[in-house]
What we know:
Blueprint: H1 25-35, H2 38-46, H3 49-56, H4 62-86, H5 88-93, H6 109-130, H7 133-154, H8 161-165, H9 171-181, H10 186-209, H11 211-217, H12 222-225, H13 228-246, H14 249-252, H15 258-281, H16 287-290, H17 292-317
Amino acid sequence: MTAVDPQAPARRHGGGAGATGTLRPGDMLLAYVALTKPRIIELLLLTTVPVMFLAHGGVPGLDLVGATVLGGAMAAGSANALNCVLDRDIDERMRRTRRRPLPRHQVSAGAALVFGLALGVAATLWLGLTVNWLSAGLAVAANVFYVVGYTMLLKRRTAQNIVWGGAAGCFPALIGWTAVRDDLAWAPVVLFMVVFFWTPPHFWSLAIRYRDDYAAAGVPMLPVVASLETVAGRIVSYAYVMVATSLVLPLVVDTGWFYPVAAGALGAAFLVEAHLLLGRTRETEDVSAVEPMRLFHGSNLYLALLFVSVALDPLITRH
Length: 319
């Protein structure tokens, strides 16, 4: 769902090529953990657990939350590891990703592939046996969409890659609901769409920052093929649709007053920041002067607080 901004230089353990044979056990473990992209998993889980509160109308059972979180983390980690295998050539050419385990030769592509597939199988069985098979199936669908749809088919072929490929990161909202209810309803679909419309502004702001990297790697992210003003204009458009969609939730599920107030305030703040970005792009094409990372970090905060408000609403307004 989300991207990370690692700007610090890569730290090598055991040297360059062929370093897999010289890593200490602890460093090898950390390399495999890094393949799963833990910081991305954190945000994915943040859109899972609050929906469980909404579906339950309060605090769901901690055993169910724990099982769903563990299964979701394994499923997301599987998709991220497979993405690292398929994108290892791109990762080597980009400052943002060259510190990942495969470019640093900490883990071989074959080992990472086996790890990713095994983690995916384990996640599916765990979710099916401890949560329910609908949640397990949705996790599989998300992984297939991300690995095949986004990484293999869209990312290198179209500037709309993140628009459609980003849908994979929306599935946690569905999984959180089905983990509690074992069915689907309009409420998780609305939250799915909120994340869907949030993803392009979030990722395009990061892609502005790393526009030269994407260009060098041959990835046609929108900031590579369009002017910064055009990208910012698209960001503003998606932001309006995202905010409007977030305000639909009280129309399809019984929320109290807290969620719509929070969603309105957070949405207004996001729109202000998006318009400020658009204004800066009208003055310059200099990436550093445009300050796209303000919106990137703000978008992370927006999504986190919005979903926290989803969880808090039944606790504040029903008890």
